[in-house]
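INTERNAL AUDIT FORM
Audit reference: QA-55
Scope: verify that the stored structure record matches its stored sequence.
Auditor: D.O.
Record contents follow.
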Amino acid sequence: MSLGIELKQLRANKKWTQAFAAREIGIQQSYLSKLENGQFIPSAEVIEKLELCYGKTCLDKYLPSKTLQSTQIKKRLFVSLIMLITGLVMWLCATYEIFYPETYFTYQAKLGDFVAFNVSQHYQGERYIEGDVIYQILGERQVSRIENRFLIVGSTLCILLSVVVAAFSKKHLLIKPLNKV
């Protein structure tokens, strides 16, 4: 049995007109008519009014399902958490130069009259020997890589987006206090 048919039967049992029933419930007659014809799905607040008026608790089965809404909120919060973790990992990788090192070391090799320079991303000490050649460090330099800047910007966007998604998934908690003011 649908809600509309049940509402019509309850109203007929009390021998009320549609206008009188709408006044007793506290809703407009056109809205009650649409409920009885199955054109609208009532909110939880309207179902509570109907139960108070008709004295029935059997209308609870017509309450909108909160499980769909709660699963959507959980999914949004999960996505928000994944985005936050991804953003933090990206930021750490860019800051600690995990993927794209920014420090380069210049080594000079001398073998008789032969002089060669070697630029390396790895620090190998003040002096190191490779084969017959002795390399000595000349200096180090910092090179700001655009890849790390992209990682930092991307991580910032991920973190901000995760905060926005989390806020909008809990917007019903934010709206209630605003409505009371």
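Auditor finding: record pair retrieved intact. The chain has a mean pLDDT of 86.
Action required: none
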